Amino acid sequence: KIVQDTERLEAVMNKNGTRESRILVFVRLRPMAKKEKDAGSRCCVRIVNRKDVYLTEFANENDYLRLKRLRGRHFTFDASFPDSTPQHEVYSVTTAELVESVLQGRNGSVFCYGATGAGKTYTMLGTVENPGVMVLAIKDLFTKIRQRSGDGNHVVHLSYLEVYNETVRDLLSPGRPLVLREDKQGIVAAGLTQYRAYSTDEVMAMLQRGNQNRTTEPTRVNETSSRSHAILQVVVEYRVKDASMNIVNRVGKLSLIDLAGSERALATDQRTLRSLEGANINRSLLALSSCINALVEGKKHIPYRNSKLTQLLKDSLGGACNTVMIANISPSNASFGETQNTLHWADRAKEIRTKASEASEANEEIQRLPEFETDQAKLLLELQ
Ligand code: ADP
Ligand code: MG
């Protein structure tokens, strides 16, 4: 199984070269729920070759017309996971490599993106029987640390926090909102619990407790329940000898993020960021899109300051770090519109990334061409 997973990971790697400072985009389809089946839902998504995603059926004629107007029904990602994909496979293909690089002092982040009910929390947190990416990452981290040193050289701290309505809360010790401060290490939430972790069982229990503290989970149907972002920060500190044999401290940070439901942040292509901002859309989610956009385009200024989420993720998004997006989708034709929006968004992110890297290779003269600028502006708008 491990060999299979490694081969799959290598296939992803080979196709895309190194993961240095780039975004990989994955899609995960969840199984049809019993309630959906009982209500007569049909499956409208098919995944082929672990890469290609096809939208196969439409809820109604309007969806069909919309689909034609957009860009067709076929999407390709770095990997796409069918509904039978077990948690550990999702983990090993998307995140295992980031865990490895955190142990080398680099930062990374994994986001689950998608509409409410599409499987974000299942992917990130999972259940006791089927733990998700957060738990598997920590488990793997402990295993790798044991293999590596076993001498207590590494210290792992966990923090679990929530951004809800632009308010930051500590999920491990709920109380008053936390204030974000900028210090030498970057932006920190003052007073945030740093939990020293020793074992995985303990971590799962802690995360589940934390999740119950989310402004959200018990009342899934509640209108506000989908608007909270949960962030697990895993900080690994260790000591190494530098070139002149001095002992120095290194820190690697992995952020694992269960984002708010994307249903309202996904507007149609024509809308500008400004009109989106006026429409009571999750500000942190929009700001995240803008930052990723600016990053993939190689912009000098990245607008981290626009939201609490992006401030918190400043050191996990830019610079020498790895970013993974997992777009979660439902198979049901009743969720057709959301699924299409999510796929479309993920596809755009991927495309702009390609354009951005091509752009950086082009010479300066070409970059100044007006067409190029128009094209770039258009893509920017589209992603936003
Ligand atoms: P979200 O966090 O995106 O709102 P959830 O993760 O809570 O969605 O998923 C909605 C429901 O679907 C939950 O009951 C969850 O257990 C189930 N579910 C989601 N993804 C899967 C999966 N891959 N396999 C089995 N059940 C899943
Ligand atoms: Mg959720």
Automatic annotation (TrEMBL):
Coiled-coil intervals, chain numbering: 349-384
Binding site for ATP: G114, A115, T116, G117, A118, G119, K120, T121
Family (UniProt): Belongs to the TRAFAC class myosin-kinesin ATPase superfamily. Kinesin family. KIN-8 subfamily.
Shown part of the complete sequence: 172 to 555 of 786
Residue stretches making up the Kinesin motor domain: 22-352
Domain of life: Eukaryota
Species of provenance: Tripterygium wilfordii
Protein name: Kinesin-like protein
